[in-house]
Structure formats: C-alpha cells, structure tokens
C-alpha cells in the first residue's frame, strides 16, 4: 500500500512538472509578437524569415538594419523571384512531419498549396518566376533504418504541374546512364531561361553536380562535391557549399566555363543554399544570422540581418 | 542440461486478470509497465528528433544518420557488458535500473546540449548505452521471475506492454507539441519526467531475483563456456544465422511501398501495421510456444517472414497481398522477439542468465546489421525484386536446415 501511494505521489509530481514546463513554454512563445503588415514583392527589399517569430519580414535592401516590417506569413523556408514567392512551413505538431508548400503572389497571398511529407530544407523560385522548387528531408525513406534522405520537387506555377520528386530524372555519369537505389537530390537552381537547371545528386556516399534540361528531362553529372548549387543571375557561375570534412562545408563559387573554383572569404562552415543578391554578392545563413560576402573571394563577410534566415531579394 | 527451476517463481497475484495476465508473475507485469512507460518516453523523443535537428537547429541530418549507425555497433558490445556485470554482482535490478536511469537523464542532456552537434551526439550515445545496459538484465529478470513452463507467455505479456508504449509515445509527443505551441524543449522535459516515472516504478515494484540465484562462477570464461553447452550454442548460433538471412524492416516497408505505390505520406504508418498485428498476437503466440515448443514457433516465425517476402516479390500484385504481407511481418515479430528469449532462458544457469541472454541478443543484432549491409548491396547490384527473391530463398533454406537439424530442446 505504501508503495502504491509513493508511486502515485511520485508520478503526479513528475507529470505535474512536465505539464507546468509545457504550459510555461506556451506562454513564453506567444509574447511580444510584432504587428502584421501587408507586404508586397516591390523591388529593392530584402525579405527573410525572422527567427524570433518565424514570420516573413522585410527591410529595405539599401538599409538592412532599418525598421523591420512583419507579414502574417509563417515560413521555415522562403524564396522569391519576379512576382512569385514560395513558403515552406512544417505543420506544427504533426508526426510524421508534413510540409505545406505555399506558392505566393506579389501580395504574399497563397495562390496554390501542396502538402508533402518531410521537413523543409531548401526553397527556390526560378528567375522567370514560373517554377518553384523545394527540398524536403524525409525520414525512414532510405534503407539505412536511421538514415535521412532528401526529396527535391518542383511546381509549374502557370500550368499547375507538380513534380513531387525529381528522383526519376534520367542522369548520365561519364556517358553512361546512372542507376542506383539510393538516389537523393537536393538544392535545385534554375537558369534565367527557365529550362536549364542544376541540383546536387547524392548516391553511394558521393555527391555530384547535375546539369539538366527541363524540357528534355534529362541530366548529366558534371562535377563532384558541389552541394546546394545556386546559379548566378548572369547564369555563368554557381555558388555552392563544398564539403571539406565531416559536417564542414566551405562556401565556394564555380565558374562553369573554366571549371575554376574560388573559395569565398567566409572561413566558417556554411550549411545553406546561397543566394545571389546580384552578380557580385552572395547571401547565406550562418548560425542565426544572414551574412553577405563578395563572390570573387575578396573582402570579409559582413553581417546583414540578425536572427534571420532564408534571405530573398526583390528586383 | 541446465535446469533453472531451482527458484520459487512469484505466485500469481490477485491483480493479474485476463487470459494473458493470469498466471504471469507480478514481477513480469511490473517490468512490462516499466518498459511501457520507458517506451512512451523514448518514442516521444524519437518522433520529434528529426524535426528538432533540421528545423530547430538547422543541422544537416545526413551526417547525423551516419553517426547513428555507428552507435548501433557499440550498443551490441554494451549489451554483453550489462549482462556480465549484472550476473557478476548478482544485481540484475540495479544494473537494469542504471540503464533506465541513464536514458532518463539523457533526456535532460538533450535540453542542456543546446545546439552543439557534438554534445547531442554524446547524449544520444549515452542514451543508447543505457538501452544496451538494461536489456540483458531485464530479460534475465523476466525469465527468472517466471515458471519455466510459462516463459513464452511471460515474454509475450512483456513485449505487448512494451509495444503499447511505442504506440503511445508519438501521440504523447504530439500532445506536448500542441500544448506548448511547438516547443521541443517541452517534449524533452516531458520525456524526462515520463522516464523518471518508469525508474520509480522499477525501484518500487520490480523485485530483484538475487536470492533465487545460486552462486555461479561469473567470469568471461564462464560466459564463453556457455557456448560449450550444446543446446544453448545451437540456439545462439541459429539465432545469428537466421538473423543473417532476415531482411530488415525498412527494406520490407520500402519494397511494399514500391510494389503497391503507397503514397509517401502513409509510408511512415507502415510500421504501425506490423505493430498492430504484433500487439494482439504476442501473448497468444507466446502461450502457443509454451505448449508446442518455443523453437518450432521461432522457426515458424521466420517462415512467416519468408512468406511475406515472397508476397512482396511474387507475380501477383493484388492489394490484399500487401496487407497480408504486413500481417505476416507482424506474425514474424510475435513469434521471434520474445519467444527467442523464452527459448534461450532455460538453457542458461540462473546465475548467468543475463550474460547468456545478452550473448544471444548480441549475436542476432550483429547478424541483422550485417544482413542489412548485404541486402543493400544485392539490391544495388540486382535490383529490388531479384534481391528480395534471393533473400526469401536464402531464408527458406536456412529455416529448413534449422528445422531438420538436431532438435533444440527448450
């Protein structure tokens, strides 16, 4: 009898502690929300995800330290081109994880929505604004029971065609068609023509940069160890993360014509798909902040916005 | 032949009700409850960890998956150590308790680790250490607390309770996330509290079997000597060989998904199908094993897996076969997981029970790890269906050879 009383008392105490902790966390998270403002994709803005609130936030590109305006849109990943934006948001409290992929118009209103399994990783819009692309992390997909895999897909805004995963893309490696059961793609980036695109293919412990033709739906591996590619606005260079050790990546730029690689001045490990602000500057997330660095390897990185991620530039 | 009946099993208590629980010792039910509560706690964390790492911390999970594989190997070794120490000190409950306690504290460690990848790695490794340490002594306690004739039923009851916990864990995590508006630290803290309840239950209601155990010589040599005993060696060996011929869960689910084009959203629900069959069958199959022999049931379980594999790669793609294959996968678990422990238990002297069971489990775990690598390889080389066919063939051959080789008396 004494034991049962002890067990009951102890359990009530412990579960009570858990409930108090949980409810306190709830109150802490709902305080000090900035007011919601109507944002647009008007040129000259730097948009990003505020890491405090999770909401898409805007500052003038010329004055990134200036007043922040916050939209009501909560996203984990965000990207913009022309009059199209994409927002990836993990559904809160849903297991297994599901991500809402929202295609937004110039007023950040949802014009199309898809729900796909996985956790948001990367988001992009093609320079012509006609295609949105994403990468999601998916658990339990690979045969290594505990492994993660990635699934990259895209959506044609005008024709409403959805490609849930580009895994089936026929790929050639050294002239031969590549077959493997463990093909993963991540980090799609499109050229201004809306047809040529690049992505990282991971398989059998290696990563390749794949250059593909969307209309012919076929690609070829052109280089190894180029992850999360991001094509420059002029379509000649690719900013990417180059693996230099386990879990360590160096932000670099590849010149497609000369195949010359340039390590950028950021010496810390960067795990992000970089964004070209213009043909000279790339933006990226490091820890909790957005930084900018010259694309030619010169000058040191400068802090653009604190407590922010997923930089997007309107033009 | 070792007979381990030189102890008094707990008498059935008034709280035991129903066909499964009747005649099962109160100690086994207590251990089952401890496992249930612990599984709620650990599955809470397992369910949210990928989300937490990728979204909360912005880590690259591919690299985390790599680390995770390494720990699996370390757990196998620690399992043997846990079993050995428990026998040597004759303190099964204490060693199991340390294992449960360590895993509980690790949930707080996740809070303390913050965003440091290295610290999270260390905490997860410690968590696995706890799991490795406790498994052998816990199964030894179950087997020492049961009448030898009812071992299958006892393990069935324990595994049923364990699986209920695994079902409830993700639901508990969702509840905490909903209540805290998506706060991961809340999930970790709640998981710690739940794990502490399990340690409390263990401390209060699980009785050690110290007095029941004759003083056996416990040394590494004694553990090795176990393998000289014919029946035990056969069980350990065949468990490993069968483990080598089985196909890992994720492969089974992946094959099922490819064959029947299961929508990716439902893919993570496939394990629930297996558990849904395992759960109600664990006790009846355990009782059947007590009646007709544990070894035949253990082999029949592998035959069920072989049949499931054949359905997965066979010529008919009728949707009902997908359900049937999943059901057979559940039968495989019901007929092998607890039943193997019930079969091996009586073959080990009571004083070496934890060591002996840990040896069997480790052999099986290592073999299954190897089989995953081999299957992955043959899949890449041959393609999924031929690889499945080869695996089903290999499993059939091994089961037949095991069935017609010298009988294991259990």
Description of the molecule:
The complex is a heterodimer of chains A (315) and B (410). Helices cover 9% and strands 50% of the residues of chain A. Chain A is built from one helix and 26 strands. Chain B has two domains: 18-205, MFS general substrate transporter like domains (Growth Hormone, Chain: A); 220-404, Up-down Bundle (Growth Hormone, Chain: A). Chain B is an all-alpha fold and 410 residues long. The model of chain B is unreliable at 1-20 (pLDDT under 50). At the A-B interface, helix 1, strand 7, strand 8, strand 9 and strand 10 of A face helix 2, helix 3, helix 6, helix 7 and helix 10 of B.
At a glance:
The complex is a heterodimer of chains A (315) and B (410). Chain A is mostly beta strands.
SS content category of chain A: mainly beta
How many domain units of chain B? 2
Count of extended strands of chain B? 0
Low-confidence stretches of chain A: 141-147
- Largest sheet descriptor of chain A: 6 strands, mixed
Pick out its properties.
heterodimer; A: Neuraminidase; 2 domains; four-stranded antiparallel β-sheet; 26 strands; B: 410 residues; mainly alpha; Growth Hormone, Chain: A; 15 helices; WD40 (chain A); WD40-like Beta Propeller Repeat (chain A)
Question: What is the secondary structure topology, with strand pairs?
Answer:
The complex is a heterodimer of chains A (315) and B (410).
Chain A: H1 2-29, E1 45-50, E2 55-60, E3 69-74, E4 77-81, E5 84-90, E6 98-104, E7 110-117, E8 119-125, E9 131-139, E10 148-156, E11 162-163, E12 171-173, E13 176-177, E14 184-190, E15 196-203, E16 206-213, E17 218-224, E18 227-231, E19 237-245, E20 248-255, E21 260-263, E22 275-276, E23 281-286, E24 289-294, E25 302-305, E26 308-313
Parallel strand pairs in A: 12-17
Antiparallel strand pairs in A: 1-2, 1-26, 2-3, 4-5, 5-6, 6-7, 8-9, 9-10, 10-11, 12-13, 14-15, 15-16, 16-17, 18-19, 19-20, 20-21, 22-23, 23-24, 24-25
Chain B: H1 18-21, H2 26-56, H3 61-88, H4 92-113, H5 117-144, H6 151-180, H7 184-205, H8 220-226, H9 230-245, H10 249-260, H11 270-292, H12 294-313, H13 319-344, H14 353-382, H15 384-404
């Amino acid at each position: 009898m004494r034991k049962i009383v002890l067990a009951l008392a102890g359990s009530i105490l412990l579960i009570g502690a858990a409930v108090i902790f949980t409810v306190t966390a709830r109150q802490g998270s709902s305080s000090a929300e900035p007011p919601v403002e109507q944002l647009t994709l008007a040129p000259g803005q730097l948009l990003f995800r505020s890491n405090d609130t999770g909401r898409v936030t805007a500052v003038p590109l010329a004055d990134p330290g200036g007043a922040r305006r916050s939209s009501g849109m909560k996203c984990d990943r965000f990207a913009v081109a022309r009059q199209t934006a994409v927002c990836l948001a993990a559904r809160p409290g849903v297991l297994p994880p599901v991500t809402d992929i929202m295609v937004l118009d110039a007023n950040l209103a949802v014009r199309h929505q898809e729900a796909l399994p996985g956790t948001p990783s990367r988001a992009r819009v093609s320079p012509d604004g006609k295609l949105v692309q994403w990468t999601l992390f998916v658990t339990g997909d690979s045969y290594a029971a505990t492994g993660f895999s990635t699934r990259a897909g895209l959506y044609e805004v005008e024709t409403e065609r959805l490609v849930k995963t580009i895994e089936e893309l026929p790929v050639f490696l050294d002239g031969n068609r590549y077959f493997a059961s463990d093909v993963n793609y991540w980090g799609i980036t499109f050229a201004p023509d809306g047809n040529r695109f690049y992505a990282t293919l991971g398989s059998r412990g290696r990563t390749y940069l794949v250059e593909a033709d969307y209309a012919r739906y076929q690609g070829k591996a052109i280089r190894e160890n180029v992850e999360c590619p991001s094509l420059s606005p002029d379509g000649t260079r690719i900013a990417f993360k180059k693996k230099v050790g386990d879990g360590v990546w160096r932000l670099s730029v590849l010149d497609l014509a000369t195949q010359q690689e340039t390590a950028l001045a950021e010496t810390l490990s960067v795990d992000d798909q970089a964004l070209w602000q213009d043909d000279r500057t790339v933006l990226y997330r490091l820890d909790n902040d957005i930084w900018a660095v010259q694309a030619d390897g010169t000058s040191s990185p400068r802090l653009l916005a604190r407590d922010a991620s997923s930089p997007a530039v309107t033009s | 032949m070792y007979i381990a009946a030189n102890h008094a099993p707990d008498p059935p208590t008034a709280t035991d009700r129903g066909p499964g629980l009747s005649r099962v010792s109160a100690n086994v039910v207590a251990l089952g409850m401890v496992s249930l509560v612990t599984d709620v706690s650990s599955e809470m964390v397992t369910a949210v960890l990928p989300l937490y790492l990728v979204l909360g911390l912005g880590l690259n999970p591919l690299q985390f998956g790599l680390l995770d594989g390494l720990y699996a190997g370390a757990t196998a070794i620690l399992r043997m150590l846990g079993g050995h120490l428990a026998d040597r000190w004759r303190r099964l409950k204490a060693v199991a308790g340390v294992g449960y306690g360590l895993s509980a504290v690790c949930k707080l460690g996740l809070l303390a680790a913050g965003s440091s990848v290295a610290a999270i790695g260390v905490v997860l490794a410690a968590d696995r250490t706890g799991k490795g340490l406790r498994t052998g002594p816990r199964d030894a306690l179950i087997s020492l607390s049961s009448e030898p004739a009812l071992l299958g039923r006892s393990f069935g009851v324990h595994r049923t309770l364990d699986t209920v916990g695994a079902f409830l864990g993700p639901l508990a995590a969702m509840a905490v996330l909903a209540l805290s508006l998506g706060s991961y630290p809340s999930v970790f803290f709640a998981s710690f509290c739940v794990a502490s309840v399990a340690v409390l239950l263990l401390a209060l209601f699980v009785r050690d079997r110290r007095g029941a155990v004759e003083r056996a010589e416990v040394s590494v040599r004694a553990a090795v000597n176990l393998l000289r005993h014919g029946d035990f060696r056969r069980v350990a060996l065949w468990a490993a060989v069968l483990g080598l011929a089985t196909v890992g869960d994720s492969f089974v689910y992946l094959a099922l998904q490819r064959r029947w084009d299961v929508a990716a959203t439902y893919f993570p629900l496939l394990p629930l199908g297996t558990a849904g069959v395992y759960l109600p069958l664990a006790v009846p199959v355990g009782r059947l094993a007590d009646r007709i022999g544990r070894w035949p049931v253990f082999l029949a379980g592998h035959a069920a897996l072989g049949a499931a594999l054949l359905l997965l790669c066979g010529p008919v793609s009728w949707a009902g076969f997908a359900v049937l294959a999943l059901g057979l996968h559940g039968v495989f678990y019901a007929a092998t997981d607890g039943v193997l422990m019930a079969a091996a238990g009586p073959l080990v002297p009571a004083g070496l029970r934890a060591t002996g069971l840990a040896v069997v489990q480790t052999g099986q775990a290592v073999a299954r790890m190897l089989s995953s690598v081999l299957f992955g390889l043959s899949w890449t080389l041959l393609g999924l269906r031929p690889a499945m066919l080869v695996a089903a063939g290999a499993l059939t051959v091994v089961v037949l050879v095991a069935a017609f080789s010298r009988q294991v008396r259990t």
